[in-house]
Amino acid sequence: MNAFAVIGADLRAARERDPAARGLLDVMLSYPGFHALVGHRVVHALYRTRLPLLPRLLSTWMRFLTGIEIHPAARIGSGVFIDHGMGVVIGETAEIGDGCTLYQGVTLGGTSAVRGKRHPTLGRNVVVGVGAVVLGAIHVGDGARIGGGSVVVKDVPAKATVVGVPARIVMQDGKPVRVVPDLQHVEMPDPHGDAIANLQRKIEELARRVQALEPDADEGEAWSWVI
Fold first, then answer.
1. Residues 121 and 34 reside in one and the same domain
2. Which among 80, 82, 71, 78 is positioned nearest to 46, based on CA atoms?
3. CATH number at residue 36
4. Helix 32-48 crosses helix 3-17 at what angle (to 10 degrees)?
5. Are residues 10 and 96 in the same domain?
6. Which end of the chain is more exposed for a tag (fewer CB within 10 A), N or C?
7. Total domains present in the chain
8. pLDDT for 102-148, tens place per residue?
């Protein structure tokens, strides 16, 4: 896919996924997420030619203009949509598949200072919610959804939904996944009931002892003596 086709796919993605968009011209002129992607595609092409300094300088200017920071080396597929992208950070070795959607404040960050693969890889059609943080050289499968505010530090299977800190799977293939087993309310501890039952056993034991000491006394007399 050539550069113009990729940019066109990004443009259509914003138009189709944002109900507030009023048309392609609206997206083209007023969407910082789209501007950041177009700028990155130019910067990334320059980066691949091994030009010194210039790609990094241009990416810094794009961050200043859009509020979105994308390292020149990051690999981003086509049809990607960055919605309300202020504060989005995409690290050097991050990879984003076709059709992904990122919301504001998303971080695709690294967990190591060692050179090499240290940022996440997102498969196709992944949705990353507001303020979510995806850390390390992990893989997020195709069609996965990451809830807002989640912190993801482990691989996410395809078509899974994860939420929380750290993130846990709550849905898989559209079906709920139980994170905590059902509480057995009928088997919950009852300290007061246990104390009463224990007292009852002691009373019965005392009654048997009294009956043994006074064999002529009937059971009712033994109970009255104990009580």
1. yes
2. 71
3. 2.160.10.10
4. 160
5. yes
6. C
7. 2
8. 999 999 999 887 889 999 999 999 999 999 999 999 999 999 999 99
Q: Which domain holds residue 211?
A: 189-226
15: which 2 tokens?
């138009």
Q: CB 62: neighbour CB atoms within 10 A?
A: 23
Please give the span between the terminal C-alpha atoms of the chain, in angstroms, as a whole number: 92
Total residues belonging to the chain: 227
Q: Looking at the domain assignment, is residue 182 inside a domain?
A: no
Residue type for position 125: N
Which H helix or E strand runs over 197? helix 191-213
**Are 125 and 194 part of one and the same domain?**
no
Q: List the one residue out of 105, 84, 110, 85 whose CA is nearest residue 95.
A: 110
Tokens 């195709």 locate to 142
Burial (CB count within 10 angstroms: exposed 0-12, middle 13-18, buried 19+), residue 13: buried
- Residue in the structure block whose two tokens are 């690294």: 110
Task: Please give the structure tokens belonging to residue 55.
Answer: 């790609």
Six token digits for residue 18: 């944002």
Asked if 132 and 49 sit in the same domain, the reply is yes
Per-residue pLDDT tens over the stretch 56-95: 999 999 999 999 999 999 999 999 999 999 999 999 999 9
Q: What is the mean pLDDT of the chain?
A: 89
User: How does pLDDT run across 30-50, given as a tens digit for each residue?
Assistant: 999 999 999 999 999 999 999
Number of H helices and number of E strands within the chain? Answer: 6, 16
Instruction: Show the tokens assigned to 188.
Output: 């919950």
Same structural domain, 92 and 199? no
